[in-house]
Specification:
263 residues; alpha/beta; Rossmann fold; 9-stranded mixed beta sheet; 10 helices; 9 strands; 45% helix
Length: 263
């Protein structure tokens, strides 16, 4: 897979499919494989650009630093898109990726066609900080496996976990490859994020997607996005936790295709 050299960064990214360019931005501790259940369906309609963010996956950085603000992630992505000669793209961001997507559209408003913000928030609340730092404490005390099970139970119901052992095992294997330093640096960098006063500046056609059982980023944060972004639409996925990408694969794929194809 290709890599893009930009200043202190060697960014891993994947390009697949044909059609209008669609940038997919993964969540905290994930990488480009966070979109694996969307890739085939979406690539039939769009050219997907799926990077590993700084501190995640196979992207390399000279010196990670103590924290990574959303603006740094956004500038990395802008440089990648310039390298790929894509002046304007559709954007989907999940969780951390949704925060990065907000930073991107606010910093580069002319480069976004349509925007989807999924399982995300315009501001990092004390509740969210408590969740993430709780994961970190478990990780320090019990190791990566303890971290995986704690974060999994935050993101999915016990019933879903019990009924989907194969997917759970796959997610566990992916988690074992996560960059612990990258997770910490991104978490610290986003701790002071608050875009609530700037949501009115977002003019791109926007869809908000949120699971009604999301215990990591509560549904009311999706509502806050919807209220702040004029003309946005909101889709609430019933009986879904933090990751529609995994839990509602077919429905999510259909919703995204319909939204981005509807010109």
């Amino acid at each position: 897979m290709p890599r893009f050299k930009h200043e202190d960064l060697l960014m891993f990214y994947k390009v697949v499919g044909n059609g209008e360019p669609l940038l997919l931005i993964h969540g905290l501790g994930s990488d480009h494989r966070g979109w694996e259940f969307q890739e085939e369906a979406l690539a039939a309609h769009f050219q997907l650009i799926i990077p590993d963010l700084r501190g995640h996956g196979q992207t390399e950085v000279d010196e990670l630093g103590m924290m990574i603000p959303a603006a740094v992630f956004a500038d990395d992505l802008a440089a990648l898109l310039q390298h790929l000669k894509h002046p304007k793209v559709h954007v989907v961001g999940h969780s951390l990726g949704g925060i990065v997507a907000q930073s991107f559209v606010l910093r580069y408003p002319d480069r976004v066609r349509k925007l989807v913000l999924m399982g995300t928030t315009p501001k990092v609340t004390d509740d969210l900080i408590d969740v993430v730092y709780g994961w970190r404490e478990v990780q320090v005390e019990g190791g990566q496996e303890a971290y995986f099970w704690t974060s999994l139970r935050s993101g999915f119901s016990d019933e879903w976990i019990e009924n989907n052992p194969d997917i759970v095992q796959h997610l566990k294997e992916l988690s074992e490859e996560a960059n612990e330093e990258g997770i910490v640096a991104a978490g610290l960098g986003l701790a002071s994020t608050d875009f609530t006063g700037r949501l009115g500046e977002i003019k791109a056609e926007t869809m908000i997607i949120h699971g009604d059982e999301d215990r990591i980023i509560k549904p009311e944060m999706g509502v806050l996005l919807h209220q702040g972004i004029q003309g946005s639409v909101m889709k609430v996925f019933k009986k879904c936790g933090h990751s529609p990408t995994v839990q509602e694969q077919d429905r999510l794929n259909g919703v995204l295709i319909e939204f981005f194809k509807d010109e």
